[in-house]
Structure prediction request, 246 residues.
Amino acid sequence: MKSRVINFIKRAAAVVLFAPAMAMAAGAVLHLDKAPVSTEPAALQHGAKLFVNYCLNCHGASFLRYNRLQDIGLSEESIRDNLMFTGEKTGDLMKISMRREEAKQWFGAAPPDLTLVARARASEFGSGADWLYTYLRQFHRDPNRPTGWNNLVFPNVGMPHVLWELQGEQVAKAGEHGSTLELVKPGKLTAEEYDNAIADLVSYIVWMGEPVAEKRKTIGMFVLAFLAGLFVLAFALKKNYWKDIH
Prediction:
């Protein structure tokens, strides 16, 4: 009887440990394009412009203040004159006026805050930046959806394609290896220009998640260099203490 109980506990533990891995293995594989994330001020400034004009209407960035954009080379005056539509002071958070209850009625779900979305979307298939970069380029026309749009990365998404004027209109074509997209109506930008614009937008969203990332990495290198020097000194001191002891 005791051995049966032990065997049952072992089997239950194995199920608990390996069920998540089996579930992921059984799920569909998500193919993501590598996002060309940049930390260049010009790219981040262009991304901020796209974010404010196309994303901030529905999605907030409520963990970031407008004056933080000075870290990417923008002056307080340029922020106030060109990028502030929802706040009164540059110290205000980048919030939106849309109510979550109303947004849920309109879109089926309240649009998420995007401050940390690049981190939240990371998975075994790629980084959050890869997911965003692929997602924003995979919208296509779908007359069966309430918004008239669908997405290959996020099927039946409630979000409309707010960047369609830039990209144009794509349609999904069923193929042997899955659906592919075909551009049927060009937008204001060429395919290459649109990809570059999305890369800048994604770079900015990644930057929003941790504005001090580059400073943190720089400090980290100095700390590692200091520890390496300290190790050399400590090792030399240890050898000096023990040189006469055998």
Observations:
- The chain has one domain: 40-228.
